[in-house]
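User: Could you write out the 3D structure of this protein bound to iron/sulfur cluster? I've included everything you need below.
Assistant: Certainly. Input first, then the structure.
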Amino acid sequence: MTLLKIEDLTIKFKSRKGVVTAVDKLSLELEKGSSIGIVGESGSGKSVTSLAIMGLLQDGNTEISGSINFEDVDLLTLTAEEKRKIRGKSVSMIFQEPMTSLNPLHTCGKQIMEPILIHQKGVSKQEAKKTAIDMLKMVGIPSPEQRFHEYPHQMSGGMRQRIMIAIALVCNTKLLIADEPTTALDVTIQAQILDLMNNLSKGSEMSILMISHDLGVVKEMCEEVIVMYTGQIVEKSPTKFVFEDPLHPYTKGLLNAIPKISSEVERLEAIEGNVPDALNMPNGCHFQSRCKYAMDRCEHETPPLFKQKDGREVRCFLYDGVGRDEDINATN
Ligand code: SF4
Protein backbone atom coordinates (compact mmCIF):
# COMPACT_ATOMS: atom_id res chain seq x y z
CA MET A 1 0.00 0.00 0.00
CA THR A 2 1.39 3.38 -1.01
CA LEU A 3 2.27 5.76 1.83
CA LEU A 4 3.99 8.53 -0.10
CA LYS A 5 3.49 9.38 -3.76
CA ILE A 6 5.38 12.30 -5.24
CA GLU A 7 4.50 13.37 -8.77
CA ASP A 8 6.37 15.86 -10.96
CA LEU A 9 7.75 17.73 -7.96
CA THR A 10 9.56 20.84 -9.20
CA ILE A 11 11.22 23.30 -6.84
CA LYS A 12 12.67 26.60 -8.03
CA PHE A 13 14.56 29.18 -6.00
CA LYS A 14 14.53 32.78 -7.18
CA SER A 15 17.48 35.02 -6.42
CA ARG A 16 18.85 38.30 -7.74
CA LYS A 17 21.13 36.32 -10.07
CA GLY A 18 18.33 34.26 -11.58
CA VAL A 19 16.20 31.18 -11.06
CA VAL A 20 17.68 27.85 -9.94
CA THR A 21 15.70 24.66 -10.54
CA ALA A 22 16.72 22.63 -7.49
CA VAL A 23 14.36 19.73 -8.20
CA ASP A 24 13.09 18.97 -11.69
CA LYS A 25 9.92 16.85 -12.11
CA LEU A 26 10.77 14.27 -9.46
CA SER A 27 8.35 11.37 -9.06
CA LEU A 28 8.58 8.48 -6.62
CA GLU A 29 6.34 6.07 -4.77
CA LEU A 30 7.11 4.69 -1.31
CA GLU A 31 5.17 1.71 0.02
CA LYS A 32 4.24 1.26 3.69
CA GLY A 33 7.08 -0.44 5.57
CA SER A 34 9.59 -0.09 2.74
CA SER A 35 12.60 2.14 2.16
CA ILE A 36 14.02 4.28 -0.62
CA GLY A 37 17.48 5.84 -0.68
CA ILE A 38 18.08 9.08 -2.57
CA VAL A 39 21.74 9.43 -3.52
CA GLY A 40 23.62 12.31 -5.09
CA GLU A 41 26.28 14.97 -4.59
CA SER A 42 25.66 18.30 -2.84
CA GLY A 43 23.26 20.37 -4.92
CA SER A 44 21.61 17.34 -6.53
CA GLY A 45 18.26 18.24 -4.93
CA LYS A 46 18.00 15.35 -2.48
CA SER A 47 17.87 17.40 0.73
CA VAL A 48 15.59 20.02 -0.81
CA THR A 49 13.16 17.21 -1.65
CA SER A 50 13.09 16.09 1.98
CA LEU A 51 12.51 19.65 3.21
CA ALA A 52 9.59 19.98 0.78
CA ILE A 53 8.00 16.79 2.17
CA MET A 54 8.40 18.20 5.69
CA GLY A 55 6.74 21.45 4.59
CA LEU A 56 9.80 23.46 5.56
CA LEU A 57 10.39 25.26 2.26
CA GLN A 58 7.64 27.77 1.72
CA ASP A 59 8.82 31.34 1.42
CA GLY A 60 8.45 34.15 -1.06
CA ASN A 61 11.45 33.09 -3.15
CA THR A 62 10.53 29.43 -3.53
CA GLU A 63 8.21 28.09 -6.20
CA ILE A 64 6.92 24.53 -5.77
CA SER A 65 4.74 22.61 -8.22
CA GLY A 66 3.60 19.00 -8.61
CA SER A 67 2.19 17.02 -5.71
CA ILE A 68 3.36 15.24 -2.55
CA ASN A 69 0.61 12.83 -1.54
CA PHE A 70 1.00 11.39 1.94
CA GLU A 71 -1.79 8.95 2.79
CA ASP A 72 -3.72 10.42 -0.14
CA VAL A 73 -3.49 14.02 1.12
CA ASP A 74 -1.43 16.47 -0.96
CA LEU A 75 0.94 18.03 1.58
CA LEU A 76 1.49 21.00 -0.73
CA THR A 77 -2.14 22.07 -0.28
CA LEU A 78 -2.09 22.08 3.54
CA THR A 79 -1.99 25.17 5.73
CA ALA A 80 1.03 25.81 7.98
CA GLU A 81 -0.99 24.61 10.99
CA GLU A 82 -2.05 21.39 9.24
CA LYS A 83 1.57 20.71 8.27
CA ARG A 84 2.69 21.21 11.89
CA LYS A 85 0.21 18.55 13.00
CA ILE A 86 1.68 15.99 10.59
CA ARG A 87 5.32 16.95 11.30
CA GLY A 88 6.75 15.09 14.28
CA LYS A 89 3.79 12.73 14.40
CA SER A 90 3.20 10.98 11.06
CA VAL A 91 6.34 12.32 9.33
CA SER A 92 9.63 12.82 11.22
CA MET A 93 13.09 13.77 10.17
CA ILE A 94 16.61 13.26 11.48
CA PHE A 95 19.46 15.40 10.29
CA GLN A 96 23.21 15.01 9.77
CA GLU A 97 24.32 17.08 12.73
CA PRO A 98 22.02 16.64 15.74
CA MET A 99 23.64 19.56 17.57
CA THR A 100 21.98 21.95 15.11
CA SER A 101 18.55 20.33 15.60
CA LEU A 102 18.56 19.67 19.35
CA ASN A 103 17.81 22.58 21.66
CA PRO A 104 20.96 23.17 23.77
CA LEU A 105 18.86 24.79 26.54
CA HIS A 106 16.58 21.81 27.20
CA THR A 107 17.41 18.39 28.59
CA CYS A 108 17.31 15.49 26.15
CA GLY A 109 14.44 13.96 28.14
CA LYS A 110 12.33 17.10 27.82
CA GLN A 111 12.94 17.16 24.06
CA ILE A 112 11.75 13.55 23.70
CA MET A 113 8.66 14.30 25.82
CA GLU A 114 7.71 17.36 23.77
CA PRO A 115 6.24 15.62 20.67
CA ILE A 116 4.28 13.25 22.94
CA LEU A 117 2.69 16.14 24.83
CA ILE A 118 1.95 18.03 21.58
CA HIS A 119 0.56 15.16 19.51
CA GLN A 120 -0.94 12.73 22.02
CA LYS A 121 -3.80 14.46 23.76
CA GLY A 122 -4.65 13.33 27.29
CA VAL A 123 -1.17 11.94 28.05
CA SER A 124 0.12 13.18 31.43
CA LYS A 125 3.67 14.48 31.99
CA GLN A 126 4.44 11.39 34.10
CA GLU A 127 3.31 9.06 31.30
CA ALA A 128 5.28 11.07 28.74
CA LYS A 129 8.38 10.86 30.94
CA LYS A 130 8.03 7.09 31.24
CA THR A 131 7.66 6.77 27.44
CA ALA A 132 10.70 9.02 26.93
CA ILE A 133 12.83 6.84 29.24
CA ASP A 134 11.60 3.71 27.43
CA MET A 135 12.64 5.34 24.13
CA LEU A 136 16.11 6.12 25.53
CA LYS A 137 16.43 2.42 26.41
CA MET A 138 15.18 1.38 23.00
CA VAL A 139 17.78 3.46 21.14
CA GLY A 140 20.54 2.03 23.33
CA ILE A 141 21.35 4.94 25.65
CA PRO A 142 22.95 3.54 28.84
CA SER A 143 21.57 4.68 32.25
CA PRO A 144 18.46 6.19 30.62
CA GLU A 145 16.94 7.54 33.88
CA GLN A 146 20.09 9.57 34.48
CA ARG A 147 20.62 10.56 30.82
CA PHE A 148 17.03 11.80 30.67
CA HIS A 149 18.17 14.84 32.72
CA GLU A 150 21.30 15.59 30.66
CA TYR A 151 21.75 18.29 28.01
CA PRO A 152 22.87 17.63 24.39
CA HIS A 153 26.38 18.99 25.02
CA GLN A 154 26.90 16.32 27.68
CA MET A 155 26.53 13.56 25.13
CA SER A 156 28.78 12.20 22.34
CA GLY A 157 27.87 12.63 18.63
CA GLY A 158 26.59 9.05 18.43
CA MET A 159 24.44 9.51 21.55
CA ARG A 160 23.00 12.77 20.21
CA GLN A 161 22.03 11.02 16.97
CA ARG A 162 20.31 8.32 19.07
CA ILE A 163 18.41 11.09 20.89
CA MET A 164 17.30 12.49 17.50
CA ILE A 165 16.10 9.02 16.49
CA ALA A 166 14.21 8.71 19.80
CA ILE A 167 12.51 12.08 19.20
CA ALA A 168 11.65 11.09 15.61
CA LEU A 169 10.14 7.74 16.58
CA VAL A 170 8.45 8.53 19.88
CA CYS A 171 5.03 9.12 18.28
CA ASN A 172 5.18 5.96 16.14
CA THR A 173 5.95 7.92 13.01
CA LYS A 174 4.81 6.45 9.68
CA LEU A 175 7.55 8.04 7.56
CA LEU A 176 11.09 8.65 8.77
CA ILE A 177 13.20 10.93 6.60
CA ALA A 178 16.86 10.47 7.45
CA ASP A 179 19.07 13.15 5.88
CA GLU A 180 22.72 12.01 6.01
CA PRO A 181 22.08 10.56 9.50
CA THR A 182 25.54 9.04 9.89
CA THR A 183 27.78 11.36 7.89
CA ALA A 184 29.08 13.24 10.95
CA LEU A 185 29.84 10.06 12.91
CA ASP A 186 32.86 7.74 13.23
CA VAL A 187 32.69 4.62 11.09
CA THR A 188 31.98 2.27 14.03
CA ILE A 189 29.25 4.55 15.40
CA GLN A 190 27.84 4.85 11.85
CA ALA A 191 27.41 1.08 11.74
CA GLN A 192 25.69 1.09 15.16
CA ILE A 193 23.23 3.82 14.12
CA LEU A 194 22.41 2.06 10.81
CA ASP A 195 21.86 -1.22 12.71
CA LEU A 196 19.62 0.59 15.16
CA MET A 197 17.51 2.14 12.38
CA ASN A 198 17.31 -1.19 10.58
CA ASN A 199 16.15 -2.99 13.72
CA LEU A 200 13.63 -0.31 14.63
CA SER A 201 12.07 -0.34 11.17
CA LYS A 202 11.89 -4.16 10.98
CA GLY A 203 8.54 -5.50 12.07
CA SER A 204 7.01 -2.02 12.05
CA GLU A 205 5.01 -0.33 9.33
CA MET A 206 7.41 2.60 9.27
CA SER A 207 8.75 3.64 5.86
CA ILE A 208 12.18 5.22 5.48
CA LEU A 209 13.38 7.83 3.00
CA MET A 210 17.15 7.87 3.35
CA ILE A 211 19.03 10.85 1.89
CA SER A 212 22.74 10.25 1.43
CA HIS A 213 25.78 10.95 -0.71
CA ASP A 214 27.01 7.49 0.31
CA LEU A 215 25.87 4.55 -1.81
CA GLY A 216 27.23 2.15 0.82
CA VAL A 217 24.80 3.49 3.45
CA VAL A 218 21.88 3.16 1.06
CA LYS A 219 22.92 -0.41 0.16
CA GLU A 220 22.67 -1.33 3.86
CA MET A 221 19.32 0.31 4.45
CA CYS A 222 17.14 0.57 1.36
CA GLU A 223 15.18 -1.63 -1.01
CA GLU A 224 15.15 0.93 -3.78
CA VAL A 225 17.68 3.55 -4.90
CA ILE A 226 17.13 6.84 -6.66
CA VAL A 227 20.23 8.56 -8.03
CA MET A 228 19.91 12.32 -8.52
CA TYR A 229 22.06 14.72 -10.52
CA THR A 230 21.41 18.48 -10.83
CA GLY A 231 17.86 18.14 -9.53
CA GLN A 232 16.87 15.30 -11.84
CA ILE A 233 16.47 11.59 -11.24
CA VAL A 234 19.05 9.90 -13.48
CA GLU A 235 18.49 6.32 -12.30
CA LYS A 236 15.81 4.54 -10.30
CA SER A 237 16.14 0.88 -9.44
CA PRO A 238 15.75 -1.89 -6.87
CA THR A 239 18.96 -1.63 -4.81
CA LYS A 240 20.48 -4.99 -5.70
CA PHE A 241 20.60 -4.21 -9.44
CA VAL A 242 22.34 -0.87 -9.00
CA PHE A 243 25.34 -2.45 -7.32
CA GLU A 244 25.51 -5.46 -9.63
CA ASP A 245 24.88 -3.57 -12.83
CA PRO A 246 24.62 0.25 -12.74
CA LEU A 247 23.10 1.75 -15.89
CA HIS A 248 23.64 5.51 -15.96
CA PRO A 249 27.23 6.72 -16.59
CA TYR A 250 26.96 8.89 -13.45
CA THR A 251 25.92 5.93 -11.28
CA LYS A 252 28.83 3.92 -12.72
CA GLY A 253 31.13 6.82 -11.79
CA LEU A 254 29.79 6.96 -8.23
CA LEU A 255 30.36 3.23 -7.80
CA ASN A 256 33.87 3.37 -9.28
CA ALA A 257 34.74 6.02 -6.70
CA ILE A 258 33.97 3.69 -3.76
CA PRO A 259 37.08 1.98 -2.34
CA LYS A 260 36.85 -1.82 -2.47
CA ILE A 261 38.31 -4.10 0.17
CA SER A 262 40.97 -6.22 -1.52
CA SER A 263 44.58 -7.17 -1.01
CA GLU A 264 45.69 -5.11 -4.00
CA VAL A 265 46.14 -1.37 -3.88
CA GLU A 266 43.65 0.04 -6.32
CA ARG A 267 43.45 3.43 -7.99
CA LEU A 268 40.02 5.03 -7.46
CA GLU A 269 38.40 6.65 -10.47
CA ALA A 270 37.05 10.13 -9.84
CA ILE A 271 34.27 11.46 -12.07
CA GLU A 272 36.01 13.92 -14.36
CA GLY A 273 34.85 17.55 -14.51
CA ASN A 274 32.45 19.51 -12.36
CA VAL A 275 28.73 19.78 -11.81
CA PRO A 276 27.40 22.52 -14.16
CA ASP A 277 26.49 25.94 -12.75
CA ALA A 278 22.91 25.78 -11.45
CA LEU A 279 22.20 29.22 -12.96
CA ASN A 280 23.51 28.11 -16.35
CA MET A 281 22.35 24.58 -16.96
CA PRO A 282 23.31 23.33 -20.43
CA ASN A 283 20.67 22.33 -22.97
CA GLY A 284 20.32 18.60 -23.42
CA CYS A 285 21.72 16.15 -20.89
CA HIS A 286 23.05 17.81 -17.73
CA PHE A 287 25.80 15.19 -17.46
CA GLN A 288 27.17 15.67 -21.00
CA SER A 289 30.34 17.59 -20.04
CA ARG A 290 31.45 14.71 -17.78
CA CYS A 291 30.23 11.78 -19.85
CA LYS A 292 32.62 9.69 -21.95
CA TYR A 293 29.69 8.33 -23.99
CA ALA A 294 28.23 11.74 -24.94
CA MET A 295 26.81 11.89 -28.49
CA ASP A 296 25.59 14.77 -30.65
CA ARG A 297 21.99 14.42 -29.54
CA CYS A 298 23.03 14.69 -25.84
CA GLU A 299 23.87 18.37 -26.50
CA HIS A 300 20.48 19.27 -27.96
CA GLU A 301 17.88 16.88 -26.56
CA THR A 302 16.93 16.35 -22.94
CA PRO A 303 16.86 12.63 -22.17
CA PRO A 304 13.65 11.40 -20.49
CA LEU A 305 13.63 8.48 -18.03
CA PHE A 306 13.72 5.33 -20.18
CA LYS A 307 11.98 2.31 -18.64
CA GLN A 308 14.10 -0.85 -18.44
CA LYS A 309 13.43 -4.40 -17.27
CA ASP A 310 13.07 -5.26 -13.55
CA GLY A 311 11.28 -1.97 -12.85
CA ARG A 312 14.37 0.11 -13.56
CA GLU A 313 14.47 3.58 -15.13
CA VAL A 314 17.43 5.52 -16.52
CA ARG A 315 17.80 9.03 -17.96
CA CYS A 316 20.27 8.38 -20.77
CA PHE A 317 20.04 8.09 -24.57
CA LEU A 318 22.16 4.94 -24.49
CA TYR A 319 18.98 3.17 -23.42
CA ASP A 320 16.61 4.78 -25.93
CA GLY A 321 14.38 2.28 -27.68
CA VAL A 322 16.81 -0.60 -27.68
CA GLY A 323 16.52 -1.40 -23.97
CA ARG A 324 19.92 -2.25 -22.55
CA ASP A 325 23.02 -1.45 -24.57
CA GLU A 326 25.05 -4.51 -23.60
CA ASP A 327 28.12 -3.38 -25.57
CA ILE A 328 28.42 -0.17 -23.59
CA ASN A 329 27.96 -2.01 -20.30
CA ALA A 330 30.50 -4.62 -21.23
CA THR A 331 33.20 -1.94 -21.45
CA ASN A 332 32.86 -1.09 -17.73
FE1 SF4 B 1 26.04 10.57 -21.42
FE2 SF4 B 1 24.36 11.23 -23.38
FE3 SF4 B 1 23.66 9.44 -21.58
FE4 SF4 B 1 23.83 12.01 -20.95
S1 SF4 B 1 22.39 11.10 -22.40
S2 SF4 B 1 24.57 10.31 -19.75
S3 SF4 B 1 25.61 12.63 -22.16
S4 SF4 B 1 25.31 9.27 -23.07
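Residues 249, 285, 287-288, 291, 293-295, 298, 303, 316-318 surround iron/sulfur cluster (CB under 6 Å).
User: Perfect, thank you.
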